[in-house]
Specification:
With 213 residues, the protein is an alpha/beta fold. The protein has helices spanning 2-5, 29-38, 58-64, 81-92, 104-113, 128-135, 148-152, 164-175, 178-191, 197-212; strands at 46-49, 72-75, 96-99, 116-119, 139-143, 157-159. It has a single domain, classed as Glycogen Phosphorylase B (Rossmann fold, 3-Layer(aba) Sandwich). Helices cover 46% and strands 11% of the residues.
Length: 213
């Protein structure tokens, strides 16, 4: 807006969006267990959610998992880029499960089952999956670029998306440290409350009032 429309920065106010209500609800233990069995999910795994396309940077996630034995579950639509990821996975025998056609409630359960959410996108409009993870009390590893730190807050873990070794070291650090995962997940859950519907609606109403007055 500043660069292309030459609008002064002082005239711009950012109001964030939220995510689907399914991620803010507590599904029953029975439903979570059923989802785990339906998709044959590992006992412990890291999760990636989103269309499998270049800018989402899944290839660097699987490169980071080479020689680690850490299982990855990926939920998202496949594009041509998927072939690149699949080739690397097969070549290096990495434990990856690709899921499609997952319902919103099932996805919310999968977030809760995951130990770590990994999302090292090169750029995003906002990065809704990051707040979905935080609402699910799952610690997020995401990029230190674009708008992602705004979605992840101070207690998510940040990586250079270009550097698969940085991604690897952050995954290993959290994978081996349950108390650190829990500490960050609890703080992330507190941070993400600002992305509930009510605070967002209040921010919008306050902006409208300010303009009218």
């Amino acid at each position: 807006i500043i660069q292309f429309l030459k609008v002064p920065e002082s005239k711009i106010e950012v109001i964030y969006q939220g995510c689907h209500k399914a991620f803010k609800e507590q599904q029953s233990e029975e439903f979570i267990q059923k989802t785990k069995e339906k998709y044959s999910l590992p006992e412990k795994f890291i999760l990636n959610v989103g269309t499998i396309e270049e800018r989402k940077n899944l290839l660097n996630v699987v490169k980071a998992l080479k020689d680690t034995n850490i299982p990855l579950v990926v939920v998202g639509k496949k594009t041509k880029y998927f072939r690149k990821v699949e080739q690397f996975v097969q070549q290096h025998k990495i434990s990856v499960q690709f899921l499609e056609g997952v319902s919103m409630d099932e996805l919310a359960a999968i977030y809760k089952l995951a130990d770590i959410f990994v999302y090292p996108s090169f750029f995003e409009g906002f990065g809704i999956p990051v707040i979905e993870a935080l609402f699910s009390k799952t610690v997020a590893i995401t990029s230190n670029t674009s708008c992602l730190p705004e979605a992840g807050g101070p207690d998510s873990v940040y990586v250079d998306p270009e550097n698969h070794l940085d991604i690897q070291s952050k995954i290993k650090f959290l994978w081996d440290n349950e108390s650190e995962r829990k500490r960050r997940a609890d703080k992330g859950f507190y941070f993400v409350q600002q992305f509930n519907d009510e605070p967002i609606a209040n921010n919008l109403m306050n902006l409208y009032r300010k303009i009218i007055s």
